[in-house]
Design brief:
Strand 12, helix 4 and strand 13 form a beta-alpha-beta unit. The strands form 5 sheets. The chain has a 7-stranded mixed sheet, covered by helices on one side. A 4-stranded parallel sheet has the order 12-13-16-17. Helix 1 runs parallel beside helix 2 and helix 4 packs parallel to helix 6. The N and C termini lie far apart (79 Å). Helices cover 31% and strands 20% of the residues.
């Protein structure tokens, strides 16, 4: 069984790499003496990820060494300085495995590909073997995202982390957290305590469900957990529509509405509405400079004449003002 083909271990590769060259020859045999060798401490987390892969799939805990080690080992190399580059190369040879990239991010994705090779080639993996192969890959799309609707269906932090772990397997790099909607406000804003005390009660199936939300520490924990795995968290704050939960907590922000759409929309002509939006952005716990998602072109305002500025309001102008406030963090002039 020393002479193997890598053909059988490609079935679990998702997405399929750009270049694959299967090779004939002896397999790389993993033993307790096999080490994970990194160029420097910047790849420590990636090495620990690979360590976890081998423990889970082969039952072996491999030691991690930094530089200066030669022999039949697994080598991780980040050879550039640009962390935005995601290209990597994976080479499995009889006496050496090497994952090289321009960045730790590329190395991390190469590790996920190696994990998929082990999963797809169950027979060789069961005998601690990895068939020879050469792979190269880089993503077609810079943003590869998923969205979790925790506003309607709240999930505890542990479940969000589990979802992030599943994203990692397939090299997704953006997680959009839908944090606010009619059914609930799911993030603590200490300046507005009623958002969680009142606005976080209920969910899509049960309007009377107990309050459920993420504290500031929860958000920091999720963001850090994702960032270590090269995933950016994009917070979604629904506005100007889909604001029922916020307006339930602070009725003075409501723009009215009728029937099932009562309090559906933030009031577009009050200075405190835009102050609230700026405060939420500043106090949300997400790092400055990251991308907030402003959703909600659907609005519902009362029929009939209202204040003069509101009666002339156009939906597009309304959305533009909300987005401007998010970008600049400043109060707008009254819309006319």
């Amino acid at each position: 069984m020393g002479c193997l083909s890598a053909q059988q271990n490609l079935s679990a590769l998702v997405p399929m790499p750009n270049y694959i060259e299967t090779q004939e020859g002896k397999a790389f045999v993993v033993t307790e003496k096999t080490q994970i060798v990194i160029t420097d401490a910047s790849l420590q987390f990636e090495a620990e990820e690979l360590q976890r892969v081998f423990k889970a799939q082969m039952g072996l805990k491999l030691n991690i060494q930094t530089g200066g080690v030669k022999g039949k080992h697994i080598y991780l190399k980040a050879e550039g300085q640009n962390e935005s580059l995601e290209h990597y190369q994976l080479q499995v040879q009889p006496k050496r495995i090497e994952i090289s990239a321009e960045s730790s991010k590329g190395v991390f994705y190469g590790i996920q590909t190696l994990a998929q090779l082990l999963l797809g080639d169950a027979e060789n993996t069961a005998h601690n073997r990895i068939a020879p192969v050469v792979l190269e890959d880089s993503p077609r799309f810079a943003f590869r995202g998923f969205m979790l609707d925790v506003a309607r269906h709240f999930l505890p932090v542990s479940d969000v982390k589990r979802f992030i772990d599943l994203m990692v397997r397939y090299k997704y790099n953006v997680l959009q957290l839908h944090l606010t909607d009619d059914q609930g406000w799911r993030i603590e804003i200490k300046k507005y305590p009623l958002l969680t005390k009142v606005g976080s009660k209920g969910n899509y199936h049960d309007p009377s469900a107990p309050a459920a939300f993420y504290t500031q520490e929860d958000i920091k924990d999720i963001v850090a957990y994702a960032a270590a795995r090269h995933i950016m968290i994009v917070p979604e704050f629904d506005m100007p529509g889909h604001a029922t939960a916020a307006c339930r907590a602070y009725p003075e922000l409501s723009g009215g509405g009728e029937g099932r759409w009562k309090d559906f929309t933030f009031h577009p002509c009050k200075e405190e509405t835009f102050r609230f939006i700026s405060d939420v952005q500043e106090c949300s716990g997400f790092q400055p400079g990251k991308v907030p998602h402003c959703r909600g072109p659907v609005i519902q305002l009362p029929d009939g004449p209202g204040p003069a500025p509101c009666s002339a309001l156009r939906v597009t102008a309304y959305d533009a003002e909300f987005c401007r406030v998010l970008r600049q963090g400043s109060s707008p002039h009254p819309v006319a």
